[in-house]
Amino acid sequence: MKIRVLVTGSNGQLGKTIKDFSNDFTNTIDFVFLEKSKLDITNSKVVEHLFKEHNFDYCINCAAFTNVDLAETETQKALDVNAHAVKNLAVNCKQYNTTLIHVSTDYVFDGSKESPYLESDITNPINTYGESKLLGETYIREHLSNYFIIRTSWLYSKFNNNFVKTIFNKLKANEKLTIITSQKGTPSSCRDLSEFIFFIISKKNTSYGTYHFSATGETTWYGLALHISKYLNKSSNVKPIQNYPTKAQRPLYSVLNNKKVEQLYNKPLKKWKDSVDDVLEHLTKE
Ligand SMILES: NC(=O)c1ccc[n+]([C@@H]2O[C@H](COP(=O)([O-])OP(=O)(O)OC[C@H]3O[C@@H](n4cnc5c(N)ncnc54)[C@H](OP(=O)(O)O)[C@@H]3O)[C@@H](O)[C@H]2O)c1
């Protein structure tokens, strides 16, 4: 029998990447991809009905309120999507024996550490988005045992809008850019993350818990932009600036230690530059 998988928020960049990749798995997995207009995860009645109807083996929750600055003013909305709706997903997963694969964030940390964050490190979000995501995590742990909470950082892909695509397009239009050096993290590819998620599902892995998934290495937003500019032979277009005021505070350091994922996966994760190059190559061909 095929594995039944629900993917929520399927119009987001991670959702679209999983959908793109799912063609390789159609012999073994039946997917139900639902974007926000088809499934609003805050609508508990619809969620419950869906779980009852389909008897999913896995729910991959790609739905989230991801606008970090907007979350400061639309706090209730961020909490509804990133926390309360996640609790409801967890409750339904428990009731229908579905494994929840939930994506969380490096922004659950305050950035005061100076070495990569472990899964066991103390969380202390410094913005509303991080608080709402952390509450979502807490609800999952309270209500469910068969879950994977995968914290990731600085996600990008060939889909939708993200830092890598934005910088690539601006540089191609020959814009001059000033990019901050104050925050350190690791850009992570939706494609690489999707591969890890498919690994969990296809191996029917039961090593439930919290995992830090990111590429290997670290950089700043400036370092990432510079890498893209070098790829395009436009490095003189990118200049560093210490910081830039934003509504939400961001952790100055949010590198994730990905050793637990590497152990589960039994292979090293890719270097961030190699994964960025994969997307840059794709964007160049478009
Ligand atoms: N992007 C990053 O840098 C980053 C870093 C670390 C962790 N993460 C986490 O990674 C996950 C995937 O992020 P992403 O970059 O793919 O985000 P994304 O592109 O913003 O996708 C999120 C999707 O969820 C949808 N959504 C919002 N509210 C919803 C609701 N009530 N019901 C159903 N769908 C809803 C959004 O639709 P609308 O756009 O129409 O609202 C969007 O299509 C998220 O959990 C995020 O917190 C992201």
Walkthrough of the structure:
By secondary structure, the protein is α/β, with parallel strands linked by helices. The protein has one domain (3-161, 188-216, 254-270): Rossmann fold (3-Layer(aba) Sandwich), CATH 3.40.50. Helix content is 40%, strand content 17%. The strands form 4 sheets. The chain has a 6-stranded parallel sheet, sandwiched between helices. Strands 6-9 form a two-stranded parallel ribbon. α3 (75-95) links the parallel β3 (58-61) and β4 (99-105). The model has no long low-confidence stretch (mean pLDDT 97). Bound molecules: NADP nicotinamide-adenine-dinucleotide phosphate (NAP). NADP nicotinamide-adenine-dinucleotide phosphate is lined by residues 8-9, 11-14, 36, 39-42, 62-66, 81, 103, 105-106, 133, 152-155, 160. NADP nicotinamide-adenine-dinucleotide phosphate binds at residues 8-9, 11-14, 36, 39-42, 62-66, 81, 103, 105-106, 133, 152-155, 160.
Please provide a brief summary of the model.
This protein is α/β, with parallel strands linked by helices and 286 residues long.
Structural class: alpha/beta
Strand content: 15-25%
> Biggest sheet: strands, sense, closure?
6 strands, parallel
Name given to the CATH homologous superfamily: NAD(P)-binding Rossmann-like Domain
Q: Determine the mean pLDDT.
A: 97
Mind telling me which CATH architecture this is?
3-Layer(aba) Sandwich
Task: Please tell me what the overall shape is.
Answer: globular
Q: Give the topology string: H per helix, E per strand.
A: EHEHEHEHEEHEEEHEEHEHH
Radius of gyration: 19 Å
The CATH class name reads Alpha Beta
Poorly predicted parts: none
Which strands sit side by side, in order, in the main sheet?
A: 2-1-3-4-5-10
Percent helix range: 25-40%
Q: Return the CATH topology.
A: Rossmann fold
Number of strands: 12
Q: How far do the termini sit from each other?
A: 38 Å
Query: Compounds present?
Result: NADP nicotinamide-adenine-dinucleotide phosphate
